[in-house]
Design goal:
This protein is mostly helical and about 425 residues long. It is built from 23 helices and no strands. Helix 8 packs antiparallel against helix 10, helix 17 packs across helix 18 and helix 18 crosses helix 19. The longest helix is centred in the C-terminal third of the chain and has 40 residues.
């Protein structure tokens, strides 16, 4: 009797469950009939599915705070970093009012709910501080990473992929309106970078594209700071380390040079990478134009030496635009500059002949006695040069003074003759 009763109850429960399932079946299929695209986002969390059903319609009625329709392509969204169930809509748009429908326009996505460390770092960056100071054009998370189209940096289609960073950063740093409104220093650095050797290599047909420095390699990502901040990767004291991440061999040579040793002694006035090569306008050092222009960069510190260099045959020819003549780097080296007293220096007594022979194969011991930086106004450079210069200066001044006086006297006589002719009193008329 008890056994029959249990079987009856089980049968009744089974029938009841089938009836409930049959009653709910149409409701489960309703979203498919309403919005076909929702099928492509089947992996999305249930809470997000409701958002996708509305925002994937051809003409969504919901609008953003900017007044634009919030249209979401489920298929594309499913292929993003957050799509396919990796994150739900309410994980980013955590406003309490969004859990009900109809709802107000959502505020900015709350990235900190998942990326707390990155958001905390952002607040200390130049962008974060600019936003806190009221400059609302400063970049936010979505400006760099996107909104509903966020992809992993390793994805070539991501805004933060190496090949796309120039365009991503250039949206602000290449936009004259944004630069002016945000008071961004440096001008259109995006265009400068594009024309630099780094920019040309990035977009050129080279095998080293993946090794070419892009914006974040020098400035950082979520730790981007102004160059005046001592902790910034582009602060003057940190530039050698930053450039050295790619140019390690050059940094090693420079560190052993006089310039590098001064920097190591905390003499920040000593030349670093950007002093000679520039920042966003870095050019190919093999081009004649750069080799001539860099003479002026050396002269920015070594004013007396560049002035005496300009007086020499080498200097005169380079002034005419010919880069085949010896420049500063030809004699002193580029990154390995050392004092003359150092035996390793290219201009030391031990190596000067070798240096000169690079251009003058027949150079000998007498040849290297030539003074490339002789100061004609100093007796230390030689009495013959000094007194010859003084003699020529006195002679030149005397010639100009003599002929200047002669010109003045001749002018006086000419004016007197002209006055007589106008008065009708000429020498011929006086004889008659």
């Amino acid at each position: 009797m008890i056994r029959v009763t249990i079987q009856g109850i089980a049968l009744a429960l089974l029938v009841g469950l089938n009836m409930v399932a049959a009653a709910k079946a149409p409701e489960a299929k309703a979203p498919e009939a309403k919005s076909a695209p929702a099928k492509t986002a089947a992996k999305a969390p249930d809470a997000s599915q409701k958002c996708i059903d509305c925002h994937s319609e051809a003409e969504p009625t919901d609008k953003s705070a900017a007044g634009k329709p919030v249209l979401l392509d489920p298929l594309k969204h499913a292929k993003t970093l957050h799509g396919g169930g990796n994150a739900g809509c309410v994980d980013c748009h955590a406003d309490e009012g969004l859990k009900k429908y109809p709802h107000k326009s959502p505020g900015p996505a709350q990235c900190a709910s998942c990326h707390e460390k990155a958001v905390k770092e952002y607040a200390t960056t130049i962008h974060g501080k600019a936003r806190s100071d009221g400059r609302m054009v400063a970049a936010t998370c979505s400006d760099c990473h996107g909104a509903h189209d966020i992809k992993a940096t390793s994805d070539d289609g991501a805004r933060t992929a190496r090949g796309n960073l120039e365009a991503t950063c250039g949206a602000c740093h290449g936009n004259e309106k944004v630069i002016k409104e945000g008071k961004i220093p440096g001008g259109n650095v995006s265009a400068m970078y594009h024309d630099s050797i780094h920019g040309r290599q990035l977009h050129g047909d080279t095998k080293a594209k993946d090794k070419v420095p892009v914006c974040t390699d020098c400035h950082g990502t979520h730790d981007m700071r102004p160059h005046k901040d001592p902790e910034s990767a582009v602060a003057r004291g940190n530039i050698p380390e930053t450039c050295g991440t790619c140019h390690g061999k050059v940094k090693k040579v420079w560190s052993a040079s006089q310039h590098g040793k001064l920097r190591a002694s905390n003499v920040l006035q000593a030349p670093g990478c950007t002093d000679c090569h520039g920042t966003h306008t870095i050019a190919d050092p093999k081009t004649p134009k750069w080799q001539l222009d860099v003479i002026n960069e050396c002269g920015g510190c070594h004013t007396d030496f560049v002035k005496s260099y300009r007086d020499t045959y080498h200097g005169k020819v380079t002034d005419l635009g010919f880069a085949t003549m010896a420049t500063c780097a030809s004699c002193h080296g580029a990154h390995e500059v050392l004092p003359k007293e150092n035996p390793l220096s290219k201009v030391s007594e031990q190596r000067i002949l070798e240096t000169c022979k690079a251009c003058h194969p027949k150079a000998n011991a007498n040849f290297v006695k030539f003074q490339p930086h002789a100061n004609k106004n100093s007796r230390e450079s030689g009495l013959i040069l000094y007194y010859t210069t003084k003699f020529m200066q006195i002679l030149l001044a005397g010639v100009f003074a003599f002929f200047g006086l002669h010109t003045v006297l001749w002018l006086y006589r000419s004016l007197a003759e002209m006055k007589k002719r106008r008065a009708g009193s000429t020498p011929e008329a006086e004889k008659h």
